[in-house]
Amino acid sequence: MMQTVVIVGGGSAGWLTAGIIAARHNPHHKDGQGTRVILLESPDVANLGVGEGTWPTMRDTLRQIGLSEVEFLRCCDVSFKQGSQFIGWQKGEGESYYHPFSPPGGYGSINLASHWLDRRADINFVDAVCPQGILCDMGLAPKTPQTPEYAFSLNYGYHLNAGKFVELLQRHCVEKLGVEYQLGHVDQVLPAENGDIAALCLSSGEKICGDLFVDCTGFAALLIGKHYQVPFVSQRDCLFNDTALVVQAGYASEDAPIASCTKSTAQSSGWIWDIPLPTRRGIGHVFSSQHLSLEKAEEELQRYLNADSGLAKGQPSPRKIEFQPGHRDSFWHKNCVAVGVSAGFVEPLEASALVLIEKSAEFIGNNLPQDRAAMAVVAKRFNQITRRYWIEIIDFLKLHYVLSERTDSQYWRDHSQAQSIPNSLRDSLELWRSQVPWISDTNNRIELFSAASIQYVLYGMGFVTEVKSSRYRSWSKDAELAGRLMRDNLGKTEILMASQPKNRDLLNLVRGG
Ligand SMILES: Cc1cc2nc3c(=O)[nH]c(=O)nc-3n(C[C@H](O)[C@H](O)[C@H](O)COP(=O)(O)OP(=O)(O)OC[C@H]3O[C@@H](n4cnc5c(N)ncnc54)[C@H](O)[C@@H]3O)c2cc1C
Questions:
Q1: Which residue has the least CA distance to atom 45 on ligand 1?
Q2: How high is the pLDDT of residue 28?
Q3: 422 C-beta neighbours (distance < 10 Å), count
Q4: What is the mean pLDDT of residues 96-116?
Q5: Which of 29-43, 165-179, 415-429 has the lowest mean pLDDT?
Q6: Number of the ligand 1 atom closest to the C-alpha atom of 50
Q7: What distance in Å separates the CA atoms of residue 391 and residue 397, rounded to the nearest whole number?
Q8: Measured between alpha carbons, how far is 231 from 224 in angstroms, rounded to an integer?
Q9: What number does the ligand 1 atom closest to the CA of 351 have?
């Protein structure tokens, strides 16, 4: 029987996994009915301390583990994220487009993108089908002071302070969800006869036994990598970025506006993220060390910081983080499952790391095997699903590069080389030349990136879908509905422009209240 889950690692992967499993399986642990959840964290290894942009899925995750949104907003220096703005990706001339979190109007029943194709000369895709681009331009919030916790006028995720987030999760998991927290550096794995992990030895000499071990040790990948030697699948030939320079930049004034989205600005050999929090901005340059020297990367980052009058002068020196882009070949091996960076990491272009942690922990929580035989089946399914997620993540991130028309550096030219593009993405692009992406393309119930997300990036980057006329005629019955939805969208946009508060104003109200 599954009596004890041992999670190794106290970064956001460890605590989110602990919270999700404990919220489902721990409540009666003290009466001997629930599952014991132990989280071990090394006092000697710092966690990453980055990872500050989330998806809207985080709202559900926090609600499910019983956290109040107001407490979260107050404790973690949070702002609302309504999507991402990509600047300079298409031609490198400062042009931009949005990938918002709200899908096009009528999504699920009608494919508005196919009807927008006729109007593309008059209006850009996002503004035709969704109010969120214009709201982001204006720095408006996705909700009002009257909107209940976790509800919205427009779909949103968060920008947050990663360090404070981990502290809040730890407090909540220990005090409210019965997770047992122990500081201790794991320095030995004790195997069982069947190859499972029987126990972990801490440097203090203490032994921690368990039935399932979750590897949340970040880049150390202590269990899945060092102990089990599960192969690592490098993605360096496809997604070249492997180094980040990170700065926590202060605002020039306390009431500086807070942007409603993450800004991702393309550079000569990478891109700069800009994540606005109420008290500072997290800014980082992620680039390919094969294409750009550290000095040049620092110069580009400095230029970005200097050009922004909203930032205080004289920012701290950047912190450097190196990583190998890629993921494990499998993620659940024997009685060990890897969640978070230990399972894999590629550049944070669409903030897909935290959402993958949420999805992985949710799967483990929903399918916590009750005996060892069931575990083998659950492991197989977990591996299938997670591999599928990684293919999607890699295809979707690479899409941003493949659609770019930039040729101004070797980096951008290399990104368009056929051998760097996965076959799965090449197939999809072939299809999208004559067919607008839609839900039925894959019939995949567990996809990470919806057809809506693909549409926003494709048409934001100026991709052309040439639909044959016979196919077009079959849409004509929907044409009236499509016209109405696009008119409704313009009306809704006007209303929201007048009714939504500024991000800063709403956050000041919540944080001060
Ligand atoms: C530059 C950069 C930007 C990012 N931006 C985003 C973003 O915007 N959005 C997003 O979703 N994700 C982002 N990520 C990813 C995100 O930071 C991670 O997914 C997230 O922080 C989870 O990390 P983790 O918990 O897996 O690892 P870590 O935070 O590294 O935690 C590892 C833990 O393991 C413990 N540990 C290690 N060895 C041992 C041992 N021997 N014994 C006991 N404990 C041990 C450590 O003490 C630590 O607590 C970014 C990552 C990088 C590198």
A1: 42
A2: 60
A3: 16
A4: 95
A5: 29-43
A6: 17
A7: 10
A8: 9
A9: 9
96 Cα to the center of ligand 1, angstroms: 30
443 torsion bin: left (phi>0), alpha (psi -120 to 50), beta (else): left
Q: In ligand 1, which atom is closest to the CA atom of 284?
A: 1
- Higher confidence at residue 28 or residue 464? 464
Type of residue at 471: R
Domains of the chain: 4-52+161-236+325-390 (3.50.50.60), 243-322 (3.30.70)
**CA of residue 163 to ligand 1 center, whole Å:** 11
Length of the chain: 513
Angle, alpha carbons 205-46-214 (nearest 5°):
60
Whether 200 contacts 207, CB under 8 Å:
yes
pLDDT at position 447, please? 80
Closest CA to 39 of 16, 61, 68, 9: 9
- The Cα 13–Cα 216 span in angstroms is 6
H/E/C letters for each residue in 423-469?
HHHHHHHHHHCCCCCCHHHCCCCCCCCCHHHHHHHHHHCCCCCCCCH
3-class secondary structure, 69: helix
Q: Which residues line ligand 1 (CB under 6 A)?
A: 8-14, 40-42, 45, 47-48, 50-53, 185-186, 216-218, 220, 222, 244, 246, 284, 321, 323, 340-342, 348, 351, 353-354
pLDDT tier for residue 443 given thresholds of 50, 70 and 90: low
Ligand 1 centroid–CA 13 distance in Å is: 7
Give the H/E segment covering residue 208: strand 207-209
Which two three-digit tokens encode residue 355?
Answer: 């959402």
Q: Say how far apart CA 197 and CA 212 lie, in whole Å.
A: 8
Closest residue CA from atom 50 of ligand 1: 51
Q: Whose CA is nearest to atom 5 of ligand 1?
A: 51
Q: Is the pTM of this model over 0.85?
A: yes
Per-residue pLDDT band for 51 (boundaries 50, 70, 90) equals: confident
Kindly write down the DSSP assignment for every residue of 258-312, as one continuous string: --SSEEEEEETTEEEEEEE-SSEEEEEEEE-TTTS-HHHHHHHHHHHHHT-TTBP
Closest ligand 1 atom to the C-alpha of 342? Answer: 26
Q: How far is the CA of 345 from the centre of ligand 1 (A)?
A: 10
* 303 close to 320: Cβ distance less than 8 angstroms: no
- Enumerate residues 6+ apart whose C-beta is below 8 A from 52: 159, 160, 161, 162, 275, 277, 282
